[in-house]
Amino acid sequence: LETFVGAGVKPIPFATLLDGVRFEVLETLPHDPTCFTQGLSYNNGILYESTGLNGKSKVRRLDATTLEVIQSIDIPREYFGE
Predict the structure, then answer these.
(1) Under a CB-based contact definition with an 8 Å cutoff, are residues 24 and 6 in contact?
(2) What percent of the chain has pLDDT over 70?
(3) Is it the case that residue 4 has pLDDT exceeding 50?
């Protein structure tokens, strides 16, 4: 988590700007423009992402360093992923 909030800054779980925490973008990576992120979690080098698009929602596991898709599961068309 330290790489996300900056060296020497004590991580605060579920921190927001209202908590007075300052955030700094350290790096950007390309992301599939057809995937509209609705939920995003991080654990042990893996990003867990749910995407929402009518009829095309999915849940994915991605390598947090490269954003390579490790696993992708389509959500049935009648449901919308969040």
Answers:
(1) yes
(2) 77
(3) no
